[in-house]
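Anyone? Bumping this.
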Amino acid sequence: MATGPVWVFAEVSDGRVAPGALELLTKARSLGAPDVEAVCLGPGAREAVAELGRHGASTVYISTDDAFAELLMGGPAADTLAPLITARKPDLILFPGTHDGRDVAGRLAAKLDLPVIANGLDIEAGATITVTSTIFGVTQVVRTEFGERRPALALFQPKAFAASALPAGPTPRTVEVPAVIEERHRRARVVDRATQVEAGPALEEATVVVSGGRGLQDPANFELLHEIADLLHGAVGASRAAVDAGWVPYSMQVGQTGKTVKPAVYIACGISGAMQHTVGMRGSQTIVAINRDPEAPIFKLADLGIVGDALTVLRQLRDELRSRSR
Amino acid sequence: MNVVVCVKLVPDPNTPGQLDPETHWLRRDLADAVLDPGDEFGVEAGLRLAEAQGGEVKVVSMGPERAVDAVRKALAMGATKGVLVSDDGLRGADALTTARMLAAAIRREPYDLVITATESTDGYSGIVPQAIAELLGVPAVTFASDMSCDGTLLTTTRQTESGSETVVSELPCVLAVTAGVNEPRYPTLRGIMGVKSKPLERLTPADLGLDASVQVPAGQTVVSVAMARQREAGEVVRDDGDGARRIVDLLARLRVI
């Protein structure tokens, strides 16, 4: 078990606590630590406190400094965390494996010379702290034990744990911490921010995901995926090949450098199943694949594989679903 | 503009590597090794920026002697100089040690921009770019999907979970590019022939004033390696006009519809 506090690095975006923070707090509660605490930086941090508390944080360290939104998160967050770590001596800090989560953990590891393990899927805290992670496109599972150097830093894949709120969570203690923004971090500024707005459920939260790849032949054919996703109350995803070709925005990308999804049903259409893609969807409960090539690697993962023309099958599928929904 | 691109030799992603169950090191005897495909985008991005601004691209790598192949490929693409940090003591090095070696090799000469991939294809921890930036004391723009530079300021589109942001950074800085950011060039025959005449420097941690032996075992130790549980392949059928019907039946069984 953890002998000192376990911290969770909690992100807030668009006024919402990122799901990773709640997943990690839920897991942190099971590690036998004397305290589970959260760190939340940036505008919106104060509003996040209650929800972080409901998921197990007894204390939330916050700074609402605008600099965390105006500058890149990595450097300022690491500089702000460093003195706090020295003062409070956490045993372990859990980070979501998001873009900013990786940036902060990488900075902090180099700044304080701390051990860091990435791509975590599970963590156990017994006599030692051991993280289970995957390498080589989830083909191998590695268990890595932290040495004595503390705090240990661990990054986790999205959805590694299921979030659950406490029945009656106590109100957490809020501790305001001073933002440490060194001049060198002001040399890079975020001057604009664009949010890709998708109708329907978010890709990471949808129970059905319909994804398309280059096998769809034309970007216009993604419309067919949207029609089917709407009928199934699902979301549309894409392979990196389709994103790289400029057919659809990056926010739709599923895979190693995109999103990780674990829907009840994943329908891969015209996607060959390169490792870079399957990393992000192999955790789906049921996988359906439609591909012209019977040797496509995606069929090795599929519960149901249809060898055939994706567009033909999808048009029929849309029509069938429409007739049922009437 | 002096650009440094960090590259890595990785097991060919098409034939994923394996860790030795005894030593927990990569079984290099089994794997075909290539320049990380993700790094080709970094090399290309570096070449384009250097071509536009005037300047040179240097490639820096840490790895076994064999990693010289990755450096040579980047030289064949158009980089002018290569550096390989190599030492037996670095076997099994973690991400932070890698960053330390690369940062020390980079700072030996003036640079304007350091380019890396977002993550390596084999280990994909994704923390090396920020760690290098911290050690060099410069900003890092990660997950960059588009970039331009006027010689003083680097303007980047950075992918975020919900969309993108535009980041303006002063030089020097670290830039981590995503895969697909450009179309990496193929080495020309002339490029390949020219590799031999380009300087390729081999360094040890001692040359960099660093001690390779203190980092292994580091703050962490691999305790076991196993094959991941593979999904059982299900039913694969040829579409004879009933493919959609089969999917609908499955969705109904799963109570999705």
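Late reply, but here is one note on the structure posted above: Residues 208-325 of chain A form a domain with the Rossmann fold fold (CATH 3.40.50.1220).
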